[in-house]
């Protein structure tokens, strides 16, 4: 299984989600799952993750090795699950979908959060905001990634994805 995390610029949220997910999958002993990230824009292609994203992530024990890339329609061919950070990212990725099967792979990361009673929450973009925004971002990403790892373990990923698609 290949999971791709996607945000706008691929320097804050999606590399953070990639780092968190990579470590949590490893801790859970889930072999055979790979993770990558991309952005919907071309703003930061080739750039390392944002300094505040890296500092907060490293402080939590995560490591970073990716550089920013832009999501392309061909990424649907490689990814089994595409985790977008917000509704705008979702719209941008869905606009590139070529088939219903492509569309079926796209879900907001927040769909896996511990509390979805008020709907699926976006992971707000912290770019340009103070450090506290990155702290909140990581708290939200860690919660949702924990839910995703549990869903992989218990085989309920497709159910969560289908439930979010029903809300679209």
UniProtKB/TrEMBL annotation:
Protein EC: 3.1.3.48
Key words, A-Z: Hydrolase, Protein phosphatase
Q: Mind listing the GO molecular function terms for this protein?
A: protein tyrosine phosphatase activity
Q: Where is the active site?
A: 7, 13, 125
- Which EC class does it fall in? hydrolase
Does the keyword Transmembrane feature in the UniProt annotation? no
Which parts of the sequence belong to the Phosphotyrosine protein phosphatase I domain? 1-151
Q: What family does the entry list?
A: Belongs to the low molecular weight phosphotyrosine protein phosphatase family.
**Name of the protein described by the UniProt record:** protein-tyrosine-phosphatase
Q: What is the originating organism of this protein? A: Ornithinimicrobium avium
């Amino acid at each position: 299984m290949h999971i791709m995390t996607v945000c706008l610029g691929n320097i804050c949220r999606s590399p953070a989600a990639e780092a968190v997910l990579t470590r949590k999958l490893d801790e859970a002993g889930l072999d055979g799952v790979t993770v990558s990230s991309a952005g919907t824009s071309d703003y930061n292609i080739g750039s390392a993750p944002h300094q505040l994203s890296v500092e907060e992530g490293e402080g939590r024990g995560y490591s970073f090795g990716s550089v920013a890339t832009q999501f392309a329609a061909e990424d649907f061919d490689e990814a089994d699950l595409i985790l977008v950070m917000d509704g705008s990212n979702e719209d941008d990725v869905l606009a590139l979908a070529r088939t219903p099967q492509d569309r079926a792979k796209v879900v907001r990361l927040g769909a896996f959060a511990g509390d979805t009673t008020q709907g699926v929450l976006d992971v707000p973009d912290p770019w340009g905001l103070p450090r506290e925004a990155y702290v909140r971002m990581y708290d939200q990403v860690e919660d949702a990634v924990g839910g995703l790892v549990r869903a992989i373990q218990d085989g309920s990923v497709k159910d969560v994805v289908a439930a979010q698609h029903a809300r679209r």
